[in-house]
Amino acid sequence: MYLIGYLSSLSCRAGESIDVMASSSVEDVQLSLVRLLHGDENPVGPGFVYEEISEFAPLALKVKEYDTPIGSYAISQRALSLGQSIEVTFSLWPTLPRRHEFQGIFSLPEAGVCVGLSTAGCLTLSQHGTSVLAMEQPLPSHQWFNITLRINPRGSELTVDFHTEGKTALHPLASIKGDGIPLGGQSQVLLATGWLEKIDNQLFPRQPYNGKIAAPKIYSDGALIAQWAFEQQMSLQTVPDISGSGIPLALINAPTRAMTGPGWTNQYHSWQQAPEQYNSIHFHDDDLSDACWPVAANVTLPATLNSGVYAIRLRAGGLADDYIPLALRPAINAEPAKIALILATYTYLAYANEHLTEGDFEQGSEIPVQTGSWEDLVAIHQEWGKSHYDLHNDGSGVAYSSFLRPIPNFRPTYRFWGFGAPRRFSADLYIVWFLHQQGLAFDILTEHDLNQEWRDVLKPYQTVLTGTHPEYYSGEMLDAYENHVGEGGALMYLGGDGFYWVTTQFADMPHVVEVRKSEGLRHWDACPGERYHAGTGELGGIWRTRGRSANKLFGVGMGAHGWDNNAPGYRRSPQSYNADLAWVFDGIDEDVIGGFGLIMNGTSGDEIDRTDKRWGTPANTLVLASSEQHSEWYVPVPEDVTTVSNRLNGLYNRNVRSDMVLIEHPGGGAVFSVGSIIFAGALPVNNGDNNVARLLSNLVRNFTARTK
Q: Is pLDDT at 364 greater than 90 in this prediction?
């Protein structure tokens, strides 16, 4: 029993429309609009706070449960004309040759012909589901093979050659012959699935394949009729046909591109250097770019609404309400505020539907793992896809993540299983609550807006605030921040582990972000030769490796991480008492900032950032305060560990800390950073009457009174 939905966009302007997709086990659903102010249901804080939007008339919907067509495949955009004989060649790199069901690799569905892997991992040719040829020897995984299929009315033949060091062996691994198959007529081509089943208006791939496919060619009566160049148009979800027939392939559910092929020689590590060595695509049975649910409602947001964090609320009798977040930007002709809060939508997608608590999960701190309804839904509905923290079913890392699917852990009341409190979006609502409570007018933007409109989107604003965990960033987004500060604007980094992973989008899939992990704090590694992004061609990994550490702009960069029950506060530095900084600490008498909060009972914790001149912290950076000693549960990030020691943890290592810094630029721009994911969790304590809220109020008001 569940009720859940998703939107066609993460943001829109007041006066614009969005599509709402919904699935429910109860047919009658009411749709309404609310403005979110606070999400944490901790009784010590304000609780779950929202405003009903009276300008929006609720809608009555008829909804049913929808399944999600998961698994990537390729399909020719139109049918091929088949002669009396065909020859098909391609290369194959299976990753799960032994599977619980048959895996289709090459299929002519209208002709009923399919080449695939049996449950034992043996290459098989079938027609209309009946085996025609079957090899006895199963294919090993993670090895390249050349496959040749010949079919005519007199006989059929299936041949497998294997590769050694990028070269084809002199003798075939196996070659078998069988009865003929009459052809003729027309058929589309399917790659990486056996067949498609249409249910209502959705197409479900059946018998999906796990692994790479490279260099497919089809000959009919001796003439080349299709040759798909997987090494071309790498950033798109179409593959050109270079045979002259002009029948491109459409890629469905975003299989992974920019992958090494059978001819990769280890000499090149970017697909742009030697495209011909990157002529493969990696398909997975758990890829997902679009859940393809039908539109339940098209909703127009009233043009009179102020910018803010809203939610489409779905309500059905007997089910928990679903609040689908929406960043509402100002109406196109509205006067912008002087303050903008950037929601970390790239990071929300990176963690979307993560499955880390499933299976053999090791407790990572003294705090017991506390899963909730969000993790339960994701575990039950594996078809809703995975996060950048997960592995595909075949063990490869998940490089792509989409927002066109239900995402239970992207909700206002979400509580993170690691410490039983808000994280990411639900934690960013602490900042929303603070700005409302302080009476500060502000606009809401997303990182997707920032990436798309990076040249101009920040120009109207004097003060720009980040969320609590802006971990995944594109170069364009960093450019936007640098330009903003360079033009005299103020930037407030109100989190930790920020600007860490190189993250990009696709030109024809703006709903999908791409990450290739290597080095850094990670759960998987991209394979050698596969660390460059398909969407943009740039090197993935962490920004520090690219020479663009967060320290250079924000003064601090990711340095350590951990969870415990007693996160410390920040002790003020001697220089923070200088007279020229009195405005920062106006109304604050304490030496320690924070040391309390709705997350882990403190202010510095989870993932924390510090200054480091080696990585570009500017010389004029003022360290206002630093976190007090952290516990043994806190350790440095892997890229900072060059030798093994039993004294790397926070009890002994002063590099395990977060620094609160202020950088005043000669041109008038300013940067303030807190270096802690959980910092904002202190804002609502005592209804906002505390020194963390006072400090931020002083800074925001001072910055916003300035002019670019």
A: no
Rounded CA gap, 206 and 104, in Å? Answer: 8
User: How many residues in the chain?
Assistant: 708
pTM greater than 0.90: yes
In angstroms, rounded to a whole number, what is the distance separating the alpha carbons of residues 148 and 135? 13
- Cα 143 to Cα 95, 96, 170, 347: the distances in Å are 8, 11, 16, 34
3-state secondary structure 339-408: EEEEECHHHHHHCCCCCCCCCCCCCCCCCCCCCCHHHHHHHHCHHHCCCCCCECCCCCECCEEECCCCCC
Taking the C-alpha atoms of residue 515 and residue 397, their distance in angstroms, rounded to an integer, is 10
- Pairwise CA distance, residues 415 & 405, whole Å: 20
Q: What are φ and ψ of residue 640, in 5° steps?
A: -95, 0
Q: What are phi and psi of 374, to 5 degrees?
A: -65, -50
> What pLDDT does residue 171 have?
57
DSSP state of 236: S
> Alpha-carbon distance 224 to 244, whole Å?
9
The number of angstroms, rounded, from the C-alpha of 520 to the middle of its chain's C-alpha atoms is 17
Domain assignments of the chain as residue spans, ordered by start = 3-68+294-332, 73-283, 340-705
Q: Would you say the CATH fold of 73-283 matches that of 3-68+294-332?
A: no
CATH number given to 73-283: 2.60.120
The residues that bridge with 633 in the sheet, in sequence order, are: none
The answer to whether the beta carbons of residues 128 and 112 sit under 8 Å apart is yes
Q: What is the DSSP letter of 9?
A: -
Residue 288, CB half-sphere, CA atoms under 13 Å: how many?
29
Q: Mutual orientation of helices 691-705 and 425-437 as an angle, nearest 10°?
A: 70
Partners of 660 in the beta sheet? 625
Q: Looking at domain 3-68+294-332, does it have CATH number 3.40.50? A: no
The CA distance from 680 to 427, in Å, is: 7
167 pLDDT tier (thresholds 50, 70, 90):
low
Which amino acid does the sequence have at 590?
E
Which residues, 6+ apart, have CB-to-CB distance to 568 below 8 Å?
Answer: 595, 602, 603, 604, 605, 627, 628, 629, 630
Q: Among residues 644, 646, 643, 607, which one has the least CA distance to residue 627? A: 607
The strand pairing partners of 626, in sequence order, are 571, 659
Rounded distance between C-alpha atoms, residue 345 and residue 70, angstroms: 23
Q: What is the DSSP string of 107-169?
A: EETTTTEEEEE-TTS-EEEEETTEEEEE-SSPPPSS--EEEEEEEETTEEEEEEEEEETTEE-
Task: Compute CA distances 655 → 556, 612, 659, whole Å.
Answer: 12, 9, 10
**pLDDT band for position 169 (cuts 50, 70, 90):** low
* Residues 6 or more apart in contact with residue 220 via CB below 8 angstroms: 80, 81, 82, 83, 85, 86
